[in-house]
Amino acid sequence: MIKKLLFTFFLVLVQTIISAQTNTYIGTNNSWTTAANWSLGIVPTASHDVVIQSGKSVNISLDSFAKSLNISGTLTISTGKRLTVSGDFTVNTGGTFSMGSGSDSSTLIVYGNYTNNGTTNFYKSDVIIVGDLLSPATSGLQNQGNVIVGGNIIGGFDLTGGTGTSQIYAVNPNAIVTITPMSIDTNVTPGVQVTSESTALIALVNTVIYGGNCTFTISSLLNQSNCLGAAIFSVTTNAASGYTAKWQVNSSGNTWNDLSDDSVYSGTNTLSLTINTVSSVMNSYKYRIVITKDSCSKYSNVATFKNTTWDGTSWSNGTPVGGSNIVFTGSYPPAIDPAIDLSGCSCQITGSANVTIKSGRTLTVVNELNILGSASLTFENNASLVQTNDATSNSGNITYKRLTTPIKKFDYTYWSSPVSPQTLYNVSPTTLSDKFFSFDSASEDWKQESSSTTMSKGKGYIIRAPENNSITPPPPGLYEAVFIGAPNNGTVSISSLINDSSYLIGNPYPSALDANKFLIDNSTVLDGTLYFWTHNTSIQLASSITNGSAGSGAYAYTSDDYATYNLTGGVGTSATTIGFGPVVPTGKIASGQAFFASTKPTIPANSSIMFNNSMRVEGTILGNNSQFFRTTKSSKTASVIEKHRVWLNLTNSEGAFKQMLVGYVTDATNDYDNAFDGESFDGNEFIDFYSINEDKNLTIQGRALPFDKNDEVTLGYSSTIEGIFSISIDQVDGILTSEDVFIEDKMTNNVKNLKEGAYSFSTGAGAFNDRFVLRFTQKTLGTDKVGEFDNSVLISNDKKVLKIKSELESIKRITVFDLLGRKLFDKEAVNSNEFSTSNITLNKQLVLVKVMLTNGKVISKKVIY
Q1: I want to staple 584 with a disulfide (CB 3.0 to 4.6 A). Which of 289, 472, 572, 790 is the partner?
Q2: Residue 33: how many CB atoms within 10 A of its CB?
Q3: DSSP assignment string, 219-278
């Protein structure tokens, strides 16, 4: 039963520049009202910060005041009495606050927060808290009275004792309510007003929380997001004219202070408060407005920035999916990993919390990241940290782990650092000290680096595998590099560029990088193709190859090479269905990955290669941050995009491999385009395979749209290996999934539909740039096509003398090949209708003679020597 409350209520809040005094209880007779019991020699007033130490017990027998209360001992309010606290009320661990016992009914008014870390017994009393009611799960709060809260209600509550009226009100419609357990008042709904209790209680609530008996109203103040780095708190009122407004902030948890316009705040005397620059230290700040008219003052409800806190067990305000500040006070994730991405305006990790972002998951933060005290933040392999604003107030170090694909003892890996500072030594502590290198673009050669060198942002380095790599944790041969430092963020640039030179650069962020965005944004500087070195090992016993491609020969070739990427697409270093690890670059550059890019022959003065946050992408379960290429020796040789592409592989049965790509792509032309055509870096020591355009050997060639099925593309190759090779389709996309794809062998007059299977041919060592044509129709070879035997041209062998006579056109060039494709004889600028030579020494051998006439016609005939 609620006893009658005194309606008369008097409270003076003194705003002064004089600091509040601490008044500590030192007495022994338990009396609050005895002056000699207090360190200041006076009974506490509304200007005193009151402290009751452990072991002290105090009883309030008259209505009393305090500016703030901090209890480690015991405090009790006698029945029918009132305690008013103008700031925060805190019960520490081991402390006890009690409002009587049994049917006792007293009154507590707290204008700040009430935090219970010990024991609180409200019994059947009336409690009005303007701020938050907080009771951590390790403590208990007993309630059988009426508790009216203007802020959030969070924590552990024991609501089961005794009988009688019992109700908790969360009068703020924006309040966060999390009660555990909820054995009574299971439906504490934010925004429910006090309407069913006594007139005296309702009047007291109106006075304390809503501003007394003022005739005007103030609309609800809403919690705000600080994702944009600025925020606006605003209200409306029907006070009409003649009122004054003043915004206040509670930044310490103890005191409300008036705000004045400055570089941070503006509109402090209006209905809209603008915070021009929001930082994570403001995450716990509380804001309210006081409106005064005709000597009547009314406070709005309290609002904060939207926060959601992980305490080691649950989120206080739901899983962070953007718009809230993320706060970790406990370790994450729980034993049962939720396997989710997290996103918020800012992120703060405090105390001793150990937070781990699991592989494939992303923590996205709009603004800053702060790791405080002994807290830690670890990103497992393939996890990502994405920051969208160029936050300058990051604090604390992260640990970022990057796992390579299998490497051997003498392999090199191309690294860049996602954190600062990071030394080369700490990437691989057991690598020999003379096996750290960078690339000197001026000399186009490798430069040895000291192991103590601090890695520059955006710069690439190569590091040989650890000496003891064979004993790394399973799976065998993998190496895990650990980067520890502040996460790189914002704009990173590589300056002092040289025209037409190669640069070893790298992703500077702890997240994947969008290669397309990087290339487009650097299109005035870079040639447009990126090269990622990979290693498979050189010639070896076929039995050592595990990918099934080596065949039955004694030795096999699994070639070192550069995977390549530009706006047309990517070219890999092994077939898409074979092998471990990355194959074709996807356009998402993994964190820690370094790569080669080349500047254009002519670049603007003072140009830079630029990285920025807009290029960063989340490392989702789709694997955006998982394609990390490893290396061996220091080798250096529109909104909707339409793409129709074919990838061709050149292979032999012993494991040699080379891939090239031809694609019909939006904005590409049939001329050489920096963005869509990529030259072969010729990093494969055994074979090279390419298309040819404008005398350039292209590992990637972009062609103009619309796709023309009559288009033809010249293909070339080079090989240090003699023998049988095959050309096959690796994959197709777009319209080419339904079109035939043919390879024409101009030496043997064969045309093969690659959709029906691979085309096999014999070759010798050398370069062959006019043997093959890629086309999409199987038209009959006409009289002007390669391979036709024309009766107007006579080709014969007369006693080891090659004789050629053309009846109609003069002869321009004569070339002789053996059946392995080796060039045996070549004569240019013949410029005659007849030609003969005895300079071809062969013994009973079949050769192919090609005769080019001055009109461009090519005649081929097999001749026996």
Answers
A1: 572
A2: 13
A3: PPPPPB--TTS-EEEE--BS--SS-EEEEEEESSSS--EE---SSSEE-TTSSEEEESS-
Q: List 818's β-bridge partners, or say none.
A: 847
In the block, tokens 């990790």 appear at: 349
Cα separation, 230 vs 718, whole angstroms: 60
**Residue 358: Cβ within 10 Å count:** 17
3-state secondary structure labels for all residues of 697-708: EEEEEEECCCCC
Give the strand pairing for 119-121 and 96-98.
parallel
The pLDDT confidence band at residue 607, using thresholds 50, 70 and 90, is: very high
| Other Cβ atoms closer than 10 A to 325 | 28
Residue 20 has what pLDDT?
60
Please tell me the least confidently modeled range out of 73-82, 352-361, 644-653, 785-794.
785-794
User: 843 by DSSP, 3-state: which?
Assistant: coil
Give the model's pLDDT for residue 547.
Answer: 39
Pairing relationship of beta strands 68-71 and 114-116 according to DSSP bridges: unpaired
Q: Is the pLDDT of residue 774 over 80?
A: yes
- The dihedral built from the CA positions of residue 138, 139, 142 and 147, taken in this order, carries a sign that is negative
Q: Which helix (H) or strand (E) holds 201?
A: helix 199-208
> Residue 37 and residue 24: Cα distance in Å, rounded?
9
Residue reference for tokens 């357990």 = 181
| Tokens 């024409």, located at residue | 744
Strands 436-440 and 412-415: unpaired
What is the strand order of the sheet 858-864 is part of?
823-832, 811-818, 846-853, 858-864
How does residue 132 score in pLDDT terms, banded at 50, 70 and 90? confident
**Lowest-pLDDT range of 36-50, 303-317, 500-514, 844-858:** 844-858
Residue 212 tokens, joined? 């007394």
Rounded CA-CA distance 128/209 in Å is 8
- For the stretch 813-847, pLDDT in tens is 988 887 767 778 888 888 998 998 888 877 777 78
Longest dimension (CA), the chain: 135
737 contacts 787 by C-beta, under 8 angstroms? no
CA angle 82, 86, 90 (to 5 degrees): 85
Gap between the Cα atoms of 810 and 787, Å rounded: 18
Helix (H) or strand (E) holding 561: strand 561-566
Can you read off the two tokens belonging to residue 468?
Answer: 């003891």
Give kind and range of the element (H or E) at residue 84.
strand 82-85
**Kind of pairing, strands 376-379 and 362-365?**
unpaired
- What would the two tokens of residue 342 be? 């997290």
- From the number of C-beta atoms within 10 Å of its C-beta (0-12, 13-18, 19+), residue 584 rates as buried
How many whole angstroms separate alpha carbon 672 and alpha carbon 662?
Answer: 13
The mean per-residue pLDDT over the stretch 352-363 comes to 92
- Per-residue DSSP letters for 396-435? S-EEEEEEPSP--TT-EEEE--SEES-BHHHH-TTS-TT-
Radius of gyration of the chain (CA): 39
Q: List phi, psi (to 5°) of 35.
A: -60, -35
Helix (H) or strand (E) holding 515: helix 515-521
> Hey, CA dihedral for 844, 847, 853, 858, is it positive or negative?
positive
Residue 200's nearest CA partner among 6, 36, 375, 346 is 6
Question: pTM for the full model?
Answer: 0.63
User: How confident is the model over 460-519, as pLDDT tens digits?
Assistant: 998 888 876 554 444 556 788 899 999 999 999 999 999 989 899 999 999 989 999 999
Chain CA centroid to CA 170, Å = 38
- Higher pLDDT residue, 639 or 194? 194
Q: How many CA atoms lie within 13 A of 593 on its CB side?
A: 32
What does the block give as tokens for 547? 């990918």
CA 20/CA 45 separation, integer angstroms: 11
